[in-house]
Design goal:
two-stranded antiparallel sheet; alpha+beta; about 270 residues; 8 strands
Length: about 270
Amino acid sequence: MKVRSPRSLERQRRRTHAPRPRTHAAFWRSGLANEQDGCISERAVAGATAFHAMTFQASLLLLSSRGKYAMKLCALNRELEFVPIKLVLHKNGLTNVFAMKNNKTVVETLANKKYSRLLPEVCRQYPNALNEKLGEFLYRLKMNGDMFYLRFLNEYGDNTYCDFAVAEPSKPKGLYCFVIGDGVRYIGRSHDPFEKRFNQGYGHLSPKNCYRDGQATNCHLNSLIAQHWAQIACYVCPLENDNEIDALERALIRRLQPEWNIVLNR
């Protein structure tokens, strides 16, 4: 039988009883934060798993303040504090939003250069529909299984959506992000107050947003939020200078590569 040296036995003991590295979520839940400022140290972050190390490649830190959590993201040699903002869900599972756009007829819509190339085909296949309300016409096509209706919509114009709003008035502008679990999924900017950006933008889609001359980004992001509503959290970083807001957004997206930003920019 081979006799092992005391040094060898000590190395084996350390390997056997070595603590497992903890993830960001574990640090978050346990409240292992610096007593002075609530920040998890970079040394502690380094002990997280490889997956979390990649997810937080922009030096994402978590801090605690009277039981409420915020985030710190680093970009352009600055540490930016993102604070949570509460969103209220009014309704989820909204479908056929495009069908409610009835302020113009089919022929009035085809006068727009975004749709003019569809005019010959509409005149040939649906000559009696030219004076119909646009939304009603497209909804009828959809119900009949005629996929031609999609040619009036943007890529995300017939998704399933939700209706939500900021719970409390929020006047500042700046950066915002959507987070699921430990992952930042989307980073955006707002030159308007956050309340307006969400309540009149992503949170409340008008039927026009669904069309080719509408807001495809709003449609796509709203549908993603609808899918993940139970897990999603929103954070904002108030800033004043518009040029600074734009530069910091670009820098954060480059460093973090959030999944939804990448999909939307393809």
